[in-house]
Design goal:
The chain is α+β, with helices and mostly antiparallel strands. The chain has one domain: Aminopeptidase. It contains three helices and six strands, in the order αβββαβαββ. The protein has a six-stranded mixed beta sheet with strand order 1-2-3-4-6-5, with helices on one face. Helix 2 (74-88) links the parallel strand 3 and strand 4 (93-99). The longest helix is centred in the middle third of the chain and has 15 residues, at 74-88. It is globular.
Length: 136
């Protein structure tokens, strides 16, 4: 399994009121997203948003594993690597964000010590909320 660096194509995870802060955060230096393959199949990726002066030393760690590759320890390895990157960036608080329609992701986050702190919709026409969780 390899973990090459890739570009930064990310879905927005901040509510509209935070768009200005998110734009500022995108300009900050950060580790590149990580992806992993099993053979030729992309199976997982992670993103680490570093702490900034705007967010009170909070890093956001997001780990994603395609459903057909879950429950093999790949998410845990990916999460541990991303968590190490966040701590190396001197994060005082670690958060993650999961779409409410992803029960596997919520279960994974809670099993790794995260607790829910906020639910929100990105836009008024959205029906599925995002869930922010904090490592406790």
């Amino acid at each position: 399994m390899t973990l090459p660096h890739t570009g930064r194509n990310q879905a927005p995870t901040a509510p509209p009121a935070l768009q200005q802060r998110q734009t500022h955060r995108q300009l900050q230096p950060r580790p590149p997203p990580q992806v992993a393959y099993l053979g030729d199949a992309l199976v997982r990726c992670s993103t680490v948003r570093p702490p900034t002066g705007d967010n009170g030393a909070t890093a956001t760690v997001i780990a994603r594993v395609l459903p057909e590759y879950r429950r093999r320890g790949l998410g845990t390895r990916l999460y541990q690597r991303a968590l190490g990157q966040a701590r190396a960036l001197d994060a005082q608080v670690i958060e993650t964000v999961v779409l409410a329609s992803n029960p596997d992701g919520l279960r994974f986050a809670k099993q790794h010590g995260f607790t829910e702190v906020e639910r929100y919709l990105l836009r008024e026409d959205n029906t599925v909320p995002w869930i922010d969780l904090r490592l406790t």
